[in-house]
Write a structure and sequence with these properties.
Blueprint: E1 2-3, H1 5-14, H2 17-21, E2 28-30, E3 33-36, E4 48-51, E5 56-59, E6 65-66, H3 68-76, H4 80-90, E7 97-98, H5 102-106, H6 110-131, H7 133-145, H8 150-155, E8 159-161, H9 167-174, H10 179-184, E9 188-191, E10 196-199, E11 204-210, E12 216-223, E13 233-235, H11 251-261, E14 264-267, H12 270-278, E15 284-286, H13 294-301, E16 306-311, H14 315-330, E17 334-339, H15 346-365, E18 367-368, H16 369-381, H17 385-400, H18 405-419, H19 423-457, H20 511-526, H21 541-548, H22 557-571, H23 578-582, H24 587-597, H25 606-609, H26 622-651, H27 655-679
Parallel strand pairs: 14-15, 14-16, 16-17
Antiparallel strand pairs: 1-7, 2-3, 3-4, 4-5, 5-6, 8-11, 9-10, 11-12, 12-13, 17-18
Length: 685
């Protein structure tokens, strides 16, 4: 089915960009815009700007930009149509859809099909839990024994898989789901050689795993019977929509509370999250038994800069997890750690003592990572000077990873006091560690550059990793691995179906290009405004500029394309506004418009309110800006024309042709003088 154009416009008008993006990152107001650390790339200081007035976002670090629909496409990896459906659901907008052709149906995005199949599976498992005899007698009592209420069970979409080998697969196929999609979603296992297919999850309670927007992307399943041949927990495999290193269990349910409380509690298991949530401690997520990853830390950083890690009393598990703490520090976040009494974990402890006492325990037993490490390892080191030295070096290594110099200084002071050692020695050791890391990064960078250079010399289709004549040692390292970041950037087609990204050719920034850019920037941002209400009321900047550059074409393709659109619409009596360009159906035009409409620096509101310093805006001097830009643009074209005439003069052999070119040259020089006089510049030629 295809969404009709009227519904698309309603969705776009309703979806406020700050509201949509606020579901994924914590936005803080600065001037007229809102700012955050970019959710698309790792950064420690905010460069991601959201303009509610213009309805756009722009990252000045990685360049990502767009409106509310584009943000959902980028952050969720969705096609255009599915992003619209996502927003329609958020704002309770009923979608009027037109039938799709067979061709369009076949071309439907596979990712969307996976989400649909996974959502069906979630509903199927939950229905088993509440209505099927087996679920009611086996699965439901398990959750009740854990103390989970029906409200909590439904909040986390908990369910149950039947003991049958293929009950789910049979029912899903009966409902019209494709077996290939069921397999790709990790729900069904196929053995073609035996002509068999069966359910991945059987006779287990089900814990659906959601992404940040609440879509079901995978499942965790716990067996209830004792079976040495079966793992206690079984998880979905990696799929196109599920990368376990990129997601945290409970993030969808916790994100608003994390933002409100400005701290995230990090635990290990599903039941830890659910028990704390039910106790009213909703700002909690789990790494689901995997080692903490950089992507998971950055996911938390979208909502808060503060993490408190809640450990159970197992010393071996704590020591194994400390590497993750260093990663948190390196990302610039603040981390505290809490250990529960031996034999207790967050799930059992909150059920034993209640939420109020639990929070009191956290307040009294939270330690910064330096104090935590010291308490954990000092007893073990005793009076052994070598073990104490290793511990100090380890602590310094952690501090050295903190990007903020003030925080580093505070922790050096604390370590010096705790370990009774001179602070200067710690700082000196930290400098050595930092230098070693810098050298290693340079070495790695050089190795990667060598690999890229060598790869370019290989025949097409041959990679360094597969070429037996080029072992890893020859290029300074082993096989490289890359994280699977989903960066789907579709187009905004009028037909609302995803289209390929147009080829982008970076413009060569000559003087002419820069003047063309400024002209287009003025048209995009101020085209509908009166250029000078006092002198020429009713004359828009669009009308003024197009009249002054009539007959001039731009040399930069993207700027010429925007100029052509302005001219065509103006001839139809339409003066285009900023909103038209920043929601344009051609991605390249939309991106360029957002770049031109985004402001990296904003003037503090206190300049006027506190210091009474008035700073004129562009609108205050629009006439002068437009006039000056047009003069400079004409000057750059005239300069190019003069160069062309001079070249032709040197090549001309015929005296008559020489006289003609010389006459044109003198006219162009006169134009140059007139423009220079208006601009107040001196012609040196």
């Amino acid at each position: 089915m295809r969404i009709d154009q009227e519904t698309i416009e309603r969705i776009k008008q309703t979806a406020q960009v700050a509201d949509v993006i606020g579901d994924y990152v914590s936005l803080k107001k600065k001037g007229a815009n809102l700012w955050a650390c970019c959710p698309f790339h790792g950064e420690k200081s905010p460069s991601f700007s959201v303009s509610p007035a213009k309805g756009i976002y722009k990252c000045f670090g990685c360049g990502k930009a767009g409106d509310a629909v584009r943000f959902i496409m980028d952050i969720e990896g969705l096609g255009y149509g599915e992003a619209l459906r996502h927003l329609a659901k958020k704002y309770s907008i009923e979608i009027q859809e037109a039938p799709m052709t067979d061709e369009q149906q076949l071309a439907q995005n596979e990712r969307e099909s996976l989400y649909i199949a996974l959502n069906y599976a979630k509903n199927y498992f939950q229905n088993n839990l509440f209505t099927h005899e087996e679920g009611q007698s086996i699965g439901y009592p398990y959750f009740k024994e854990r103390g989970f209420s029906d409200k909590t069970i439904k909040a986390f979409d908990l369910g149950y898989s039947l003991e049958s080998w293929d009950a789910f697969t049979k029912e899903a196929i009966k409902q019209g789901y494709n077996i290939d999609i069921l397999e790709k979603a990790g729900l069904t296992i196929r053995k073609p050689e035996e002509n068999k297919q069966f359910d991945r999850f059987r006779n287990r309670v089900i814990f659906p795993i959601h992404n940040v927007s609440g879509k079901t992307i995978a499942f965790g399943a716990r067996i209830l019977k004792t079976d040495k041949n079966q793992p206690k927990y079984l998880n979905s495999p990696e799929t196109e929509v599920y990368h376990k290193s990129h997601i945290l269990y409970g993030i969808y349910q916790a994100k608003n509370a994390i933002r409100a409380k400005d701290v995230c509690y990090l635990v290990e298991g599903y039941t830890d999250v659910i028990s704390l949530y039910q106790a009213g401690i909703e700002n909690v997520v789990a790494s689901s038994g995997t080692s903490l990853t950089l992507e998971q830390i950055r996911l938390i950083a979208r909502f808060t800069q503060n993490i408190t890690v809640l450990y159970d009393g197992d010393p071996a598990g704590i020591k194994a997890s400390l590497r993750g703490m260093d990663m948190i520090l390196e990302e610039g976040l603040n981390v505290k750690l809490v250990v529960f009494p031996e034999g207790e974990d967050p799930d059992s402890y909150v059920r034993n003592i209640g939420s109020e006492a639990f929070m009191q325990y956290i307040a009294e037993h939270s330690s910064d990572f330096i104090t935590f490490k010291a308490e954990l390892f000092l007893k073990e080191a005793g009076n052994d000077p070598f073990k104490r030295a290793e511990l100090i070096k380890d602590m310094v290594g952690s501090i050295a990873k903190i990007p903020d110099s003030i925080k580093r200084s505070v922790f050096f002071q604390k370590t010096a006091s705790l370990m009774q050692i001179d602070e200067g020695i710690l700082i000196s050791e930290s400098n050595k560690i930092t230098l070693e890391r810098t050298k290693q990064k340079e070495k790695d960078s050089q190795r990667d550059a060598n690999r890229q250079r060598l790869q370019q010399d290989l025949p097409s289709g041959v990679s360094l990793n597969s070429n037996p004549s080029l072992p890893p040692d020859d290029v300074g390292g082993g096989m490289m691995s890359f994280s699977e970041e989903d960066e789907y950037v579709g187009d905004y087609p009028v037909s609302n179906e995803p289209q390929p990204e147009p080829q982008k050719v970076a413009p060569v920034y000559t003087a002419t290009t820069l003047h063309e850019l400024e002209c287009i920037r003025l048209l995009v941002n101020h085209g509908t405004k009166e250029v000078d209400p006092g002198v020429a009321p009713g004359v828009t900047l669009m009308q003024y500029v197009l009249g002054e550059i009539d007959g001039i074409n731009f040399s930069t393709p993207i700027y010429q394309e925007i100029l052509t659109i302005c001219r065509e619409k103006f001839l139809q009596g339409v003066v285009l506004d900023t909103a038209y360009f920043i929601s344009h159906h051609i991605a390249e035009i939309q991106n360029e418009a957002i770049n031109l409409a985004s402001e990296k620096h904003v003037i503090s509101e206190e300049w006027m309110s506190r210091h009474e310093i008035f700073v004129p805006t562009e609108e205050d001097k629009l006439a002068d800006m437009a006039y000056t830009n047009i003069l400079r643009l004409k000057k750059s074209f005239n300069d190019e024309y003069i160069k062309t005439l001079m070249k032709q003069l040197t090549q001309a052999k015929d005296p008559q042709e020489q006289n003609r070119l010389l006459s044109l040259f003198m006219e162009a020089k006169e134009v140059e003088k007139q423009i220079a006089k208006e601009l107040g510049t001196v012609v040196v030629r």
